[in-house]
Specification:
The protein is an alpha/beta fold. Helix content is about 35%, strand content about 15%. Helix 4 (about 80-105) links the parallel strand 4 (about 70) and strand 5 (about 105-115). It starts with a strand and ends with a helix.
């Protein structure tokens, strides 16, 4: 299969490209920077330097690549820039989908998130609605996810991978990243999963497991799928384990909670054959140091 990857040099994309090649696919990856395209080329794929927010350029490069499927792994999370990521989800995905339509591409696999669900007591499955109408700033993030998913669904087959919080290489939770800085007391550090909200429940997924899901999703039917590990957990459980793995002090526990932070259930992905190599953050946090 010919696969066009947007976000080929992100935390997931840099692992995804070699997995696609190993599976026998022909891969074209795009990056905004020359360094990014060089990285994709070194991995053995074709590469194009392009800005996904440039509608005309995206249409041209997708037409030239003539893919059978598009994989959208677009984010701008390295600087914790929610507005920039929302723009990519809205405008970048719109440009990709319009280009795919023009080129006759029937399938897209798109990166979504698993913490946009409406509040509830139990981990959410894919039947739970998104938390539309949530107060800001959460409301803007959920609206961006809705726009991404609705736009992707304009293609014949749109597999929406609702990832858990990503950890592993090149993520906020990697050694030396924003999580370590925040846990060490840096007031300027920001990372997803507030250490103050100790009763809030979130779900994690290792980036390697997220990348493998994107490869497998090329054969999945349309619709959203939670890509999370097996153990949703309160922050008071996972923060001390992360701190220990990173070699930094854990904060004192509190009793705060974010009502929407409920975690997610991965039964649908597992029913389709996806099995995380890191089924729990308990061992996965330590594994990222190996």
């Amino acid at each position: 299969m010919r696969v066009f990857v947007a976000g080929a040099t992100g935390a997931v994309g840099r692992l995804l490209v070699p997995l696609l090649l190993d599976a026998g696919h022909q891969v074209t990856g795009i990056s905004r920077s020359l360094a990014g395209t060089d990285r994709v080329l070194r991995q053995g794929a074709s590469a194009v330097q392009a800005d996904v927010l440039d509608r005309d350029v995206v249409r041209q490069v997708v037409a030239t690549a003539a893919p059978d499927a598009v994989i959208d792994q677009l984010t701008d999370l390295s600087d914790a820039d929610g507005e920039a990521t929302n723009r990519l989800r809205r405008e970048g995905t719109r440009n990709l989908v319009d280009a795919a339509k023009a080129a006759g591409v029937p399938r897209i696999v798109a990166q979504s998130i698993s913490w946009a669900y409406a509040p509830g007591e139990q981990p959410a499955d894919e039947t739970v609605p998104l938390d539309l109408g949530a107060p800001q700033p959460r409301g803007g993030m959920v609206d961006g996810i809705q726009a991404l998913e609705e736009t992707a669904a304009e293609l014949d087959t749109a597999v929406l991978l609702r990832y858990g919080v990503l950890y592993g290489p090149a993520t906020w939770y990697a050694p030396g990243g924003p999580a370590a800085a925040a846990l060490s007391g840096d007031p300027a550090a920001r990372f997803l999963g507030s250490v103050e909200a100790d009763l809030s429940v979130i779900s994690f997924v290792h980036v390697a497991d997220a990348a493998r899901a994107a490869v497998e999703a090329l054969d999945w039917p349309t619709g959203p799928v939670n890509i999370v590990d097996d153990e949703p957990a309160q922050a008071r459980e996972w923060v001390p384990v992360l701190a220990s793995a990173l070699g930094v002090p854990a904060p004192e526990p509190t009793s705060d909670q974010q009502s929407w932070a409920r975690g997610a259930f991965n039964g649908l992905a597992r029913s389709r054959g996806w099995q995380p190599a890191h089924p729990t953050w308990r061992s996965g946090f330590a594994a990222q140091l190996a």
